[in-house]
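Action item from last week, closing it out:
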Amino acid sequence: MLLFKKKFLDDIRTGRKTQTIRVWKVRHMRAGQLSYIPGVGYIRVDSVDEVALNDLTDEDAIPDGFLSVQELRAEIERLYSCDQLCAHRVFRIRFHVLPSDEQRKIREQRRARREGTRRQDQ
Protein backbone atom coordinates (compact mmCIF):
# COMPACT_ATOMS: atom_id res chain seq x y z
CA MET A 1 0.00 0.00 0.00
CA LEU A 2 1.24 3.49 -0.83
CA LEU A 3 -0.02 6.35 1.29
CA PHE A 4 -0.26 9.91 0.01
CA LYS A 5 -1.32 13.25 1.42
CA LYS A 6 -4.89 14.14 0.42
CA LYS A 7 -3.63 17.08 -1.63
CA PHE A 8 -2.12 14.63 -4.15
CA LEU A 9 -5.11 12.29 -4.64
CA ASP A 10 -6.87 14.27 -7.40
CA ASP A 11 -3.64 14.51 -9.40
CA ILE A 12 -3.10 10.75 -9.02
CA ARG A 13 -6.68 9.96 -10.09
CA THR A 14 -6.36 12.15 -13.21
CA GLY A 15 -2.92 10.85 -14.15
CA ARG A 16 -1.10 14.14 -13.54
CA LYS A 17 0.92 12.52 -10.73
CA THR A 18 2.51 9.28 -11.85
CA GLN A 19 5.55 9.18 -9.62
CA THR A 20 6.61 9.45 -6.00
CA ILE A 21 9.94 9.74 -4.25
CA ARG A 22 10.30 7.62 -1.12
CA VAL A 23 13.08 7.35 1.45
CA TRP A 24 13.41 3.78 2.72
CA LYS A 25 16.02 1.60 4.42
CA VAL A 26 15.30 -1.10 1.85
CA ARG A 27 13.29 -1.26 -1.35
CA HIS A 28 9.61 -1.97 -0.58
CA MET A 29 8.26 -2.31 -4.12
CA ARG A 30 9.14 -3.86 -7.46
CA ALA A 31 8.22 -3.09 -11.06
CA GLY A 32 5.04 -4.92 -12.07
CA GLN A 33 3.68 -5.06 -8.53
CA LEU A 34 0.09 -4.13 -7.78
CA SER A 35 -0.47 -1.74 -4.91
CA TYR A 36 -3.37 0.17 -3.44
CA ILE A 37 -3.73 3.89 -2.75
CA PRO A 38 -6.60 4.69 -0.35
CA GLY A 39 -8.91 7.20 -2.01
CA VAL A 40 -7.64 6.28 -5.49
CA GLY A 41 -7.66 2.52 -5.98
CA TYR A 42 -5.24 0.02 -7.43
CA ILE A 43 -2.07 0.98 -9.23
CA ARG A 44 0.60 -0.93 -11.09
CA VAL A 45 4.21 -0.02 -10.30
CA ASP A 46 6.01 0.66 -13.58
CA SER A 47 9.52 1.12 -12.19
CA VAL A 48 11.45 1.54 -8.96
CA ASP A 49 14.85 3.18 -9.29
CA GLU A 50 17.30 4.19 -6.61
CA VAL A 51 18.28 7.84 -7.10
CA ALA A 52 20.39 10.47 -5.41
CA LEU A 53 18.47 13.51 -4.17
CA ASN A 54 21.03 15.80 -5.78
CA ASP A 55 20.48 14.11 -9.16
CA LEU A 56 16.75 14.86 -9.27
CA THR A 57 15.74 17.37 -11.95
CA ASP A 58 12.70 19.31 -13.07
CA GLU A 59 11.88 16.28 -15.26
CA ASP A 60 11.50 14.30 -12.02
CA ALA A 61 9.46 17.02 -10.32
CA ILE A 62 6.70 17.33 -12.94
CA PRO A 63 5.38 13.72 -12.88
CA ASP A 64 5.62 13.94 -9.10
CA GLY A 65 3.16 16.84 -9.08
CA PHE A 66 5.61 19.70 -8.54
CA LEU A 67 6.52 22.62 -10.78
CA SER A 68 10.24 22.45 -10.06
CA VAL A 69 12.88 20.27 -8.49
CA GLN A 70 13.26 22.89 -5.75
CA GLU A 71 9.60 22.36 -4.74
CA LEU A 72 10.06 18.59 -4.84
CA ARG A 73 13.21 18.70 -2.68
CA ALA A 74 11.52 21.07 -0.21
CA GLU A 75 8.62 18.61 0.20
CA ILE A 76 11.01 15.68 0.67
CA GLU A 77 12.96 17.62 3.29
CA ARG A 78 9.69 18.52 5.03
CA LEU A 79 8.55 14.88 5.14
CA TYR A 80 11.83 13.21 6.10
CA SER A 81 14.29 14.08 8.85
CA CYS A 82 17.93 14.84 8.13
CA ASP A 83 18.82 11.54 9.83
CA GLN A 84 16.49 9.63 7.51
CA LEU A 85 17.83 11.38 4.43
CA CYS A 86 21.42 10.61 5.44
CA ALA A 87 20.90 7.02 6.63
CA HIS A 88 18.38 5.70 4.07
CA ARG A 89 18.13 5.21 0.34
CA VAL A 90 16.00 7.30 -2.02
CA PHE A 91 13.72 5.60 -4.56
CA ARG A 92 11.77 7.00 -7.52
CA ILE A 93 8.59 4.97 -8.00
CA ARG A 94 6.69 5.36 -11.26
CA PHE A 95 3.16 4.01 -11.44
CA HIS A 96 -0.17 4.23 -13.21
CA VAL A 97 -3.73 3.90 -11.92
CA LEU A 98 -5.46 0.83 -13.29
CA PRO A 99 -8.54 1.35 -15.49
CA SER A 100 -11.92 0.94 -13.80
CA ASP A 101 -12.58 -2.50 -15.35
CA GLU A 102 -9.29 -3.84 -13.93
CA GLN A 103 -10.07 -2.22 -10.56
CA ARG A 104 -13.41 -4.03 -10.54
CA LYS A 105 -11.81 -7.40 -11.41
CA ILE A 106 -9.27 -7.09 -8.61
CA ARG A 107 -11.94 -6.17 -6.06
CA GLU A 108 -14.07 -9.15 -7.17
CA GLN A 109 -11.09 -11.52 -6.97
CA ARG A 110 -10.17 -10.31 -3.48
CA ARG A 111 -13.80 -10.60 -2.33
CA ALA A 112 -14.01 -14.17 -3.69
CA ARG A 113 -10.75 -15.12 -1.92
CA ARG A 114 -12.01 -13.68 1.39
CA GLU A 115 -15.30 -15.56 1.07
CA GLY A 116 -13.43 -18.77 0.22
CA THR A 117 -11.19 -18.33 3.25
CA ARG A 118 -14.20 -17.73 5.51
CA ARG A 119 -15.86 -20.92 4.27
CA GLN A 120 -12.69 -22.92 4.95
CA ASP A 121 -12.47 -21.49 8.47
CA GLN A 122 -16.03 -22.62 9.34
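Closing note: The longest strand covers residues 41-51.
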